[in-house]
Design brief:
With about 190 residues, this protein is an all-beta fold. It has a 7-stranded parallel β-sheet, with no helix packed on it. The radius of gyration is 17 Å and the shape is elongated. The N and C termini lie far apart (about 65 Å).
Length: about 190
Amino acid sequence: MINNYFDSETYSKIDFTKTKIKKGEYDNCTFTNCNFENVHASNIQFLACEFIDCNFSNTILKDTAFKDVQFYNCKMIGVKFNECDPFLLQMTFKECQLNFSSFYQLKIPKTTFIHCNLQEVDFTETNLSNCFFDYCDLKNTIFENVNLEKGNFITSMNFSINPEINRLKGAKFSKENVMGLLQKYGILVE
């Protein structure tokens, strides 16, 4: 197997459902308006790459590495990030659609989600310490046995986090969204 290396390349409007993505290492590359939907993108290394306006819905990412990778306005519905290579995994998401995705048992502290839709995402047993959820919709998102210490939820909405089964020391919430911590108790605040 040839191990390809791609450095500082730009990929625009490529439909990887028709043109197979080459296995290898992509370093400092930019992908714009590319379609990865349902593609097997396993065993690929992405280092310091940017994905802009791409579709990753249901993409298979078994042992794929995302090291210091930025996603902007990407559609990423049903992605199993928990199957990625966990070594040095570091991602930032801005204006992304991440519904039904899974981050199960990942160690992704300091991850930033800005203006993202994260409905019904699975964060079970994930380390999200120092995370930042900025204006994110977290409706029906699963937070079970999650490290959310020093996380920031001040501008986020629709979350339900049980303080008894999650680590929340130093996490920040606003007065307006603190109800997401009390739902379990059936408390009514007016």
